[in-house]
Amino acid sequence: MKLINDYYRYEREQNQKSKGRLNCTASTKSYPDFETKSFVYIGENSHTKAGIKRKSDLAMTSGAGKHVTSIYKPNMESGFAFGDVKGTTDLLLFVTTNFSMSADGTIADGAIVEVYICRGKKFDKNAVYCLLTDGELNNEIADIKETVTKTVTDTVTKTVTTKNT
Predict the structure, then answer these.
(1) What does the pLDDT look like over 50-65, one tens digit per residue?
(2) What is the DSSP secondary structure assignment for residue 119, as one 8-state letter?
(3) How far apart are CA 103 and CA 155, in angstroms?
(4) CA atoms within 13 A on the CB side of 6
């Protein structure tokens, strides 16, 4: 049974002015809510929920501070975390590479945050997260990456073509 349905890759580019901005450089272009997010911010969680038993340490936002998800198991430096999509039953799995955040909230240049969306799996988060950390989803991860339809190369080519026209 397939657990991962969609994929988005965000990268911290060198010398960005914003401390926590990551640009989308690859995706399956298959999850409508993320198609409007050409960039996201990751930072301290200032989004509070009444009655919540556990507050996350980090949050992902987009645009004018619109909350996307809280990030749990947020030792992002270990490479794994999870969250969910507000208003859905969809689970987000985070796999990071070269991710570190300084005391002032600045994400290191070259950091990569890959987001894997498991539709309808929000309530299975602990089991699916364990599958991820145990390497049981490695084949699905490889398969979903083969379906990428948007890459940074596509964006650069489109921009160059537009400017030359």
Answers:
(1) 555 566 778 888 876 7
(2) T
(3) 32
(4) 19
Q: Other C-beta atoms within 10 Å of 160: how many?
A: 10
Could you count the other beta carbons within 10 Å of the beta carbon of residue 68? 23
Could you tell me how many residues make up the chain? 165
Question: Residue 114's closest CA among 6, 3, 1?
Answer: 6
For range 20-41, the mean pLDDT: 91
CB atoms within 10 A of CB 153: 10
Residue type at 37 in one-letter notation:
K
Measure Cα distances from 72 to 1, 32, 54, 159 in Å.
Answer: 25, 23, 9, 36
Cβ-based neighbours of 158, under 8 Å, separated by 6 or more: none
Helix or strand (DSSP H, E) at 24: strand 21-27
b/e string for 10-20 if b means 16 or more Cβ within 10 A?
bbbeeeeeeeb
Average pLDDT, the chain: 84
Q: What is the DSSP letter of 43?
A: E
- Whole-prediction pTM: 0.84
Sequence-separated (6 or more) residues with CB below 8 Å from residue 1 = none
